[in-house]
Structures are given as C-alpha cells and as structure tokens.
Design goal:
With 127 residues, the protein is mainly alpha-helical. It has one domain (33-123). It is 65% helix and 6% strand. Helix 2 packs across helix 3, helix 2 (37-49) packs across helix 4 (63-88) and helix 4 runs antiparallel to helix 6.
Length: 127
C-alpha cells in the first residue's frame, strides 16, 4: 500500500481497532501572560461572532498571545480613560472626602463609560 500525502509529509497514524487515526496536536503556546476580564470578553466575542478567526488563532497557536495582547491594550486604555475623565469632570480626593456618595456616583459613571469605550474600541473590533 502506498503512503498517503499525510505520511509523506511526516505524519503518523495510531491504529485503534479497525481505524487509523492521524496523530494531530496543536502547536504549543509559550505565552505565560495573564488573560483577565478583557481577554475573556474578547474570547467570548470571537467564539460567538467570529468563529473562523477564533479557530484560525486556536489552530495556529496564537490565541493565548492574542488574548494577552488584547488584555494589555484594554487595561491601559481603561485606566487612561478613567484618569482623564475624572480629571475633566473634577472628581478629586477633595470631593471624595466632602461628599462620598457623589464621588461614588461620578466614578461609577466614569468607569461605565470607559468600559463601553474599551469594549467598542478594543474588544469588539475586527482583526
């Protein structure tokens, strides 16, 4: 029997019963960076709305590094936006000590707006 193209390219099979199953494995990823909430949101978005991109990243071994990059970008943008918006709106430590509830309301508003911006600019963008 002649070798298949898979065998000619160096592939091997494992025989289980009457079946010959190819020995396939994904490339090992070497990225040890943390994947936090932003990376998890990106993963969920890709799985649900862009399955082709998700499977391409998964099978090429680049998914974890992509998610870690997204995590870093989103975290930096979020922190920068919160700081800038708080400065523009006068949400300071003085307000925090004078009227804590007003400070909490304003900071929650700022954080929610920053989250929406990060979602639209980083998480839900196309590759």
């Amino acid at each position: 029997m002649t070798d298949t193209l898979f065998e000619q390219l160096g592939g091997t099979y494992t025989h289980i019963g009457d079946y010959a199953l190819p020995d396939l494995s994904l490339p090992a990823e070497k990225d040890d960076r943390l994947i936090g909430i932003w990376g998890q949101r990106r993963l969920r978005y890709l799985k649900q709305y862009h399955k082709v991109i998700y499977y391409n990243l998964l099978t090429s071994g680049k998914l974890d590094s992509h998610l870690a990059d997204i995590e870093e970008q989103a975290q930096q943008l979020f922190l920068r936006l919160v700081k800038e918006l708080a400065g523009k709106e006068g949400v300071t430590e003085q307000l925090k000590s004078a009227d804590q509830m007003a400070w909490v309301r304003k900071m929650n508003n700022i954080r929610n707006r920053a989250t929406e911006i990060v979602n639209n600019e980083v998480i839900y963008r196309q590759l």
